[in-house]
Design brief:
152 residues, alpha+beta, Arc Repressor Mutant, subunit A, 3-stranded antiparallel β-sheet, two-stranded antiparallel ribbon, 6 helices, elongated
Amino acid sequence: MIRLDQTSQDSSDQAEAHVQLEPIPGNGICQRLGDRWTVQVLCSLAAAEGRRRRFSALKSEVGGITQRMLTLTLRNLERDGLVLRHYFPEVPPRVEYALTDMGLGVLRALESVNLWVRANLPRVEECRRSYDDGRAGDQPTLGLRSEPSPPS
């Protein structure tokens, strides 16, 4: 478990004010949340009246997503319990998707990450430029560093 202490002026506050991070390996949730479409679909549902939208409304709301990718994303979100699918046996059939409480909870958790990204993106981009500029003359080594040969 990693202990992440928050900076504080008062050392007694610092002893009690900490967050514990214990990664949970191999559950697929972080991978799901990190894909291209999941968060956009969840946000679209959260912004909808009653947190519910029809498939066609989601497709037009989430720009650039194909019908196949939206279908796969919604199935995966339904499987994980973040979205509910409501089927109405009408002619033509109607399907609506709704955000669950757990889906809303994951969006609330991601809000902190989003705030961190907004606050730190300029610094991250600066670090990337600095790193890339420093590596511009390097030859690709495939992750291997060569040791200098000993003098003969």
